[in-house]
Each structure stands twice: as structure tokens, then as C-alpha cells.
Amino acid sequence: TMYNHGLATLALLEAVAREPDSAWRSTAQRAVDFIVHAQRSSGGWDYTRRLGGAGNTSITIWQLQALLRADALGFEGLSSPIAQGLAWLDARIGEDGRVGYRRPADFPSGSETLTAAGALCLLQAHADAGDERVKRMLAAIRGSVAPGDSIDYYRAYFIQAALAAAGTQDTDLGRLSNAVLALQSRTGELAGSWEPADRWSLAGGRVYATAM
After folding, report:
1. How far apart are CA 203 and CA 50, in angstroms?
2. pLDDT tens digits along 98-119
3. Helical H runs in the chain?
């Protein structure tokens, strides 16, 4: 599925970043080509490579992450698919800065994660933190992590990444760090890993929780 493919492509690209002249590059090139091939005519991506459907933000974000990283590493021919993907994403941003799942104001699992992920993509695509869209998006995620909230590793990952990319100092970052650190296993054979304690851990388990 495109979820797995986007994440695997990012891993290959990090290998390329560390060993630019290795065989990783040809493998990563095929992975990047697959993402481009699977892009919908609308500009987004969906769960599988089948080209029916309009796409969704959760999947599109990971493909854009991979294409933006590949572009930064010198992979060629990505300007158009990146621009189409960013245009698709832009059309999902509401006037209040929140990013919808398939359309603006569409939040089946809440708005914070997708909004943070969208802001991260725009910042990685060289949007300025002072850009009005980005400012609204960052404002929409600030204060979204309250003391005592149940942890969501996926949300925490993207909020932290977006705020860091914007270069902001924010109390949310401290709350996120404390909430995440509190769930790290300290003793026994699982020491160092994180408890699979959020709503996505049923699918991803301890490896997902620790990686996020």
C-alpha cells in the first residue's frame, strides 16, 4: 500500500543521503518513480496504487515527504508532481488553517495531525513561516496538546516536526516531550522502547510507537 511505500521510500532516501554513490540510489529511484506513477490526476494519492478515487491527505503527505526529500537529494523530474501534490494539499486547507482528510472541514480522526503534516510539507517546500497559510496552520495546532491528554504518537511526531521546521519555540514542544518520555519502558527486556499506547498502536505495535 502507499502508506508502506511512502515510508519505505523515505528510509531508502536516508540511505542515499549517507552513501550517495551506493546501490541504494537505483533502488530509491525505482521507489520514487512508483510514487510518481501512482499519483492521481487530481494531484493527490490514496491508500493503494489503483488510480481510482480522489486521494486523501494522510497518504498524500507521506508521498510528498518522499518526493521533497528526493528532490533535495538531486533526483530529477520531480518539480511537476511535487507542484501538483502541493496544489492538491492547498485545496484541503480551510480558512481557519485546518487541513481536511479528503476535503476542507473533513476530520474523521481530528484535524491536528493532518494540519501539522500539511504545514511541515509546505515548510519543506520552502514556504516561509510567515506565509499566511502556514501561520494559520501553525496557529491551529498550537495549544492542541493539553496536559493530561492521551498520547497520540502520530500527532506528536508531526506537531513537533512542523513547529521545529518553523523555527518556533513553543510550550507544546515541552508538553509533547514530557508526554512521550513518560511512556518509554525503563526496565526489563523492553527497556528503551515505547509502550504501544495510542489509537494507532493496534496496527503498528511497539515498533511503530518507538519509531514515531
Report:
1. 22
2. 999 999 999 999 999 999 999 9
3. 2-18, 24-38, 57-72, 79-90, 112-124, 132-141, 153-165, 171-181, 201-211
